[in-house]
């Protein structure tokens, strides 16, 4: 028995085969692309284009005086402090109060359409009939009416849900949701099927919240871009212009309200600051009066100067007192000594001392010439004594005067020192009072300045944001984008069939050609049998050069490399997994092809449960067959053999009568005897056996085969059958197994065999005679 080592095959991606699979389905791709592109064109033709409308705002940078104690009050003007404020303003632009005013001012909750067969065209500026909602009920969302039967000043509104309403223009009309009034513009013609849609204003506000987009392209530059996508450019531009206008008006109202509140705040603060400033000034005045201060600094400097001068004078007086004390000691001495003079004392005292010294000198000169008793000398002594008494009195008086002066100066110095000692404390208190006064004065002046600035802001109407670009609409629509949609349709047209075929290929587990077998099995594939039409000849004829004949010639050639070399007949068993895979077709045509004058072949119909060989015989067969030989030992082989009408070198043994016990007959040993007997008479014995997955009959006779041809049918047999065949070989139930792929179409899963070229080159030109369109659409 054949022993094979099976190895797990690595999965390899055959890119060429994969691509050819999809190329084989190219008509589906073209059809899908055409359908998708035509659908896209129809969509673009009848869709309502949407355009983007933009407007740009610019905000001024607010300059804050950070050195001011009340810098927060500097934000009274227009402008933004930083980019964070800009982000908050972006939310204000689309706030509901502003959008509600936009809806009311533009009457956006009433829309007008000229209806068409496929699409409606919305009107905004030139409206022949306009309306407004006066009142509406709670819970009202929207309601649609069609204007019909316009007759002069009368009209009829028709609603599918609420019926007809007839009224006159400029007269309130009660509808299902509330009260409306319609106005007629007689300069414009009203087209048939003129549609009016009334909506709740809050619903329109919600819609604007979703459609209006606010972007900040450059936060540092304080720019804001507002955009809106709509079908009517004039409407979108009016909405954005009204949004910016209402935003500036809202900012102006906020600024005025802020300015008014600031004015009240400043006035209240001025009253408080005025009272505080008056109290501080009174406190300063009281402090000056109590401490007799006009200028504390000047007075302190004057006290220091007086103290310095008095100290100098005190030193001078003390020096004079010392001189006078010395003179007193000199005056207490005898009358014969001169007294010091020119000491800077009192002039009268200096004069008395000078007279005394001169008289004393005159007396001493006289004593040199006369005696002490001389009357002149006596008179001089008397005068000297008198002058000395006068000098003593003057010195005493001078001393008293100097002492009095010294006492007065010391009192003045003590007074100045006392004043100087009080200066630090008084200066501290005085500085505190002045500090409060300066602070109150600064705050008072600042509030006065801000009150003037606030009055200017109230009188000047400056917009909160400058409109850099008024609302404008781009020329190219944002949707639908024709190029993108057509390219998308082309892509979807290619992707859709690709996805479908990809799924089909993934879930498809059928065998189509030899590559599918090679991908799952290590067993060889000898040949691919081409697919045949019903009107084609299913038997290989003499001198046959058809695709079928060429394929079986290839099979015979490949069998020579599979069959063993032996003198007796080479036994070839043909089997399959299930019924309908072409096992009998292969058996019959193999027997017809391999038989020749140098070696006859014998075809044995061994599928006794479901005989099929007789289908290929031109005459009914009523002779004995294999079944009769197996259960009746008296039957001879010669009674079973029938020569084929197609090939005289090919003999056939038919299956015979269908028995009730085929398994027992095939395993009774008679079949092996038949093969042994026929092996000496034929070169090849072909066994048409039963399918392996349905019955076990074939396994009972598999031991007589030199080679087994396992037939699978393209597009019918499944991959699991390959695994089943491999399991039989692994279990040594079959030997020398090779696959034959039957009914392979020319484009089986993209494999692309062209048998005209491969098998019938130069002999079959039927394909060339066909029209070119038949070749294109042939599957």
From TrEMBL:
Annotated family: Belongs to the etk/wzc family.
Enzyme category, top tier: transferase
Membrane topology: Multi-pass membrane protein
Protein name, entry field: non-specific protein-tyrosine kinase
Domain Polysaccharide chain length determinant N-terminal: 11-106
Record's keyword annotation contains Electron transport: no
Catalyzed chemical reaction(s): L-tyrosyl-[protein] + ATP = O-phospho-L-tyrosyl-[protein] + ADP + H(+)
Compartments in which it is found: Cell inner membrane
GO molecular function: non-membrane spanning protein tyrosine kinase activity
Pfam family, one: AAA_31
Main location: membrane
EC annotation from Swiss-Prot or TrEMBL: 2.7.10.2
Coiled-coil residues: none
Matches recorded under InterPro entries: AAA_dom, Bact_polysacc_biosynth/exp, LPS_length_determ_N, P-loop_NTPase, Wzc-like_C
Organism: Chryseobacterium salviniae
Source lineage: Bacteria, Pseudomonadati, Bacteroidota, Flavobacteriia, Flavobacteriales
AAA domain segment(s): 570-702
Keyword annotations from UniProtKB, A to Z: ATP-binding, Cell inner membrane, Cell membrane, Kinase, Membrane, Nucleotide-binding, Transferase, Transmembrane, Transmembrane helix, Tyrosine-protein kinase
Keyword match rRNA-binding: no
């Amino acid at each position: 028995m054949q022993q094979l080592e099976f190895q797990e095959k690595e999965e390899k991606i055959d890119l060429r085969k994969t691509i050819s699979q999809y190329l084989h389905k190219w008509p589906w791709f073209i059809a899908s692309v055409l359908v998708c592109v035509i659908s896209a064109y129809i969509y673009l033709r009848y869709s309502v284009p949407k355009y983007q409308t933009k407007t740009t705002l610019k905000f001024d940078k607010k300059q804050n005086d950070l050195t001011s104690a009340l810098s927060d009050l500097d934000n009274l003007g227009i402008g933004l402090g930083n980019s964070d404020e800009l982000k908050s303003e972006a939310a204000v632009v689309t706030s509901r109060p502003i959008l509600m005013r936009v809806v009311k001012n533009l009457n956006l909750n009433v829309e007008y359409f000229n209806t068409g067969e496929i699409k409606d065209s919305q009107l905004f500026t030139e409206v022949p009939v306009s309306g407004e909602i006066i009142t509406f009920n709670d819970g009202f969302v929207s309601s649609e009416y069609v204007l019909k039967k316009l007759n002069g000043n009368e009209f009829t509104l028709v609603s599918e849900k609420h019926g007809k309403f007839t009224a006159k223009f400029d007269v309130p009309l009660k509808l299902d949701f509330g009260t409306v009034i319609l106005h007629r513009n007689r300069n414009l013609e009203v087209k048939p099927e003129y549609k009016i849609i009334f909506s709740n204003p809050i619903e329109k506000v919600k819609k604007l919240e979703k459609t209006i987009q606010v972007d900040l392209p450059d936060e540092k530059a304080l720019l804001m871009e507002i955009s809106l996508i709509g079908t009517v450019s004039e409407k979108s531009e009016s909405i954005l212009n009204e949004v910016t206008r209402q935003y500036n008006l809202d900012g102006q109202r906020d600024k005025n309200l802020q300015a008014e509140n600031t004015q009240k705040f400043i006035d209240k603060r001025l009253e408080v600051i005025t009272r505080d400033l008056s109290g501080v000034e009174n406190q300063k005045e009281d402090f000056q009066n109590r401490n007799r201060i006009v200028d504390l600094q000047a007075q302190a400097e004057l006290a220091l100067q007086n103290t310095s001068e008095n100290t100098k004078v005190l030193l001078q007086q003390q020096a004079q007192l010392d001189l006078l004390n010395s003179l007193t000691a000199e005056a207490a001495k005898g009358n014969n000594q001169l007294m010091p003079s020119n000491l800077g004392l009192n002039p009268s005292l200096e004069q008395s001392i000078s007279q005394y010294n001169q008289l004393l000198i005159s007396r001493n000169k006289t004593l040199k010439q006369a005696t002490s008793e001389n009357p002149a000398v006596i008179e001089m002594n008397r005068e000297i004594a008198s002058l000395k008494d006068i000098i003593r009195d003057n010195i005493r008086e001078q001393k008293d005067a100097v002492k009095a002066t010294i006492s007065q100066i010391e009192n003045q110095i003590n007074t100045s020192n006392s004043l100087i000692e009080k200066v630090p404390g008084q200066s501290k208190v005085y500085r505190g009072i002045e500090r409060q006064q300066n602070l109150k004065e600064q705050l008072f002046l600042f509030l006065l300045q801000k009150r003037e600035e606030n009055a200017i802001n109230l009188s000047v109407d400056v917009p909160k944001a400058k409109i850099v670009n008024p609302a404008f609409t781009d020329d190219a629509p944002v949707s639908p984008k024709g190029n993108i949609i057509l390219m998308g349709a082309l892509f979807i047209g290619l992707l859709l069939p690709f996805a479908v075929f990809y799924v089909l290929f993934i879930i498809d587990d059928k065998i189509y050609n030899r590559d599918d077998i090679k991908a799952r099995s290590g067993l060889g594939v000898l040949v691919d049998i081409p697919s045949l039409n019903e009107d084609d000849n299913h038997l290989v004829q003499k001198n046959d050069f058809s695709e079928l004949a060429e394929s079986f010639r290839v099979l015979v050639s490949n069998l020579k490399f599979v069959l063993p070399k032996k003198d007796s007949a080479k036994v070839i068993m043909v089997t399959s997994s299930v019924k309908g895979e072409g096992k009998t077709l292969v058996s019959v045509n193999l027997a017809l092809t391999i038989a020749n004058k140098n070696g006859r072949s014998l075809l044995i119909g061994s599928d006794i449960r479901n005989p099929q060989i007789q289908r290929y015989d031109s005459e009914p067969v009523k002779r004995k067959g294999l079944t009769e030989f197996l259960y009746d030992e008296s039957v001879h082989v010669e009674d079973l053999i029938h020569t084929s009408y197609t090939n005289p070198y090919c003999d056939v043994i038919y299956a015979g009568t269908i028995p009730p016990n085929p398994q027992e007959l095939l395993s009774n040993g008679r079949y092996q005897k038949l093969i042994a007997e026929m092996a000496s008479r034929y070169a090849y014995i072909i066994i048409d056996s039963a399918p392996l997955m349905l019955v076990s009959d074939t396994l009972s006779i598999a031991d007589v085969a030199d080679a087994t041809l396992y037939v699978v049918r393209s597009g019918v047999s499944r991959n699991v059958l390959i695994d089943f065949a491999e399991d039989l070989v692994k279990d040594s139930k079959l030997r020398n197994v090779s696959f034959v792929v039957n009914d392979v179409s020319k484009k089986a899963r993209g494999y692309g065999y062209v048998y005209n070229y491969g098998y019938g080159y130069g002999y079959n030109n039927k394909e060339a005679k066909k029209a070119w369109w038949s070749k294109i659409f042939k599957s």
